């Protein structure tokens, strides 16, 4: 629940980053926990969605989670120009990287923020958005997925947009597939425009319920 205190120093793989709204956030890779620079533990968006019943972890497999992590790290390296697509040619997950390559070629996507922390400290919530950037001059927020499209994906992405104060960005779920193809799903179309009350029914009620239980 929001406002907890946790063992801020314990994590040996603590990652520090700033948010678009100026906060400093630490992320413990060992147990996937977020902290403020004052040591307050923040709940993740996915943790809240799971607790509220949107995410069914019965179908999650460790091997798929590992694959997703490796794909995200590779894409981050590529976007930061620390690696090239061909650097991963021999990796077991390369078809997903090739799918991302075709997405970039097809759309002309240019990244801006990469693996950026977002948060709402007052509500005790944090997360990490995958990528923002531009497609044909339009600002976009992209969430990269290596599994099947699920109903909670656009809710997660809209929450990131809200915390990052980039609600004017077009939101997309980018699904990379093992056949080196991709699908770009428009989250605005699935949930309605960010300012439309339709999607707020899903996330804001969840957020309010979570905080009322604190």
Which structural traits does this protein have?
214 residues; alpha+beta; Trna Endonuclease, Chain: A, domain 1; nine-stranded mixed β-sheet; 6 helices; 9 strands; globular; disordered N terminus
Short description:
By secondary structure, this protein is α+β, with helices and mostly antiparallel strands. Helix content is 34%, strand content 28%.
User: Radius of gyration, Cα only, in angstroms?
Assistant: 17 Å
Taking pLDDT < 50 over at least 5 consecutive residues as the criterion, the unreliable ranges are 1-7
Name the helicity range.
25-40%
Mean pLDDT: 84
Give a quick account of the main beta sheet: strands, pairing sense, barrel closure. 9 strands, mixed
The class by helix and strand makeup works out as alpha+beta
% residues in beta strands: 25-35%
If you consult CATH, what is the topology?
Trna Endonuclease, Chain: A, domain 1
Q: CATH architecture, please? A: 3-Layer(aba) Sandwich
Number of domains: 1
User: How many β strands by DSSP?
Assistant: 9
Shape type: globular
Topology:
Elements: E1 14-18, E2 24-28, E3 33-36, E4 41-44, H1 45-51, H2 62-79, H3 94-107, E5 110-120, E6 125-135, E7 138-145, H4 153-164, E8 170-176, E9 182-186, H5 187-191, H6 197-212
Parallel strand pairs: 4-6, 7-8
Antiparallel strand pairs: 1-2, 2-3, 3-4, 5-6, 6-7, 8-9
Q: Could you explain how this protein is built, in words?
A:
There is one protein chain. The chain is of the alpha+beta class and 214 residues long. It has one domain: Trna Endonuclease, Chain: A, domain 1 (3-Layer(aba) Sandwich). The chain is 34% helix and 28% strand. It has six helices and nine strands. Strands 1, 2, 3, 4, 5, 6, 7, 8 and 9 form a nine-stranded mixed β-sheet that branches. A hairpin with a 5-residue loop joins strand 8 and strand 9. The longest helix is centred in the first third of the chain and has 18 residues. The protein is globular, with a radius of gyration of 17 Å. The protein starts with 13 loop residues before the first strand and ends with a helix. 36% of the residues are buried. The N terminus is likely disordered.
């Amino acid at each position: 629940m929001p406002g907890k205190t946790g063992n801020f120093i314990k994590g040996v793989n603590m990652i520090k980053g700033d948010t678009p709204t100026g906060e400093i956030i630490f992320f413990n890779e060992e147990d996937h926990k977020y902290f403020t620079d004052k040591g307050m533990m923040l709940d993740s968006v996915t943790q809240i969605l799971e607790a509220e019943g949107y995410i069914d972890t019965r179908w999650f497999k460790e091997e798929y989670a590992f694959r997703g992590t490796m794909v995200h790290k590779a894409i981050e390296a590529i976007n930061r120009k620390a690696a090239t697509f061909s650097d991963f040619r021999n990796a077991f997950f390369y078809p997903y990287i090739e799918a991302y390559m075709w997405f970039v070629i097809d759309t002309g996507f240019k990244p801006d923020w990469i693996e950026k922390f977002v948060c709402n400290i007052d509500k005790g919530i944090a997360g990490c958005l995958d990528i923002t950037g531009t497609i044909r001059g339009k600002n976009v927020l992209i969430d990269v997925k290596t599994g099947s499209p699920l109903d909670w994906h656009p809710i997660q992405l809209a929450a990131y947009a809200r915390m990052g104060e980039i609600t004017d960005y077009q939101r997309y779920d980018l699904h990379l597939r093992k056949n080196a193809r991709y699908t770009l799903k428009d989250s605005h179309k699935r949930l309605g425009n960010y300012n439309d009350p339709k999607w707020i029914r899903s996330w804001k009620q969840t957020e309010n319920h979570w905080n009322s239980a604190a």
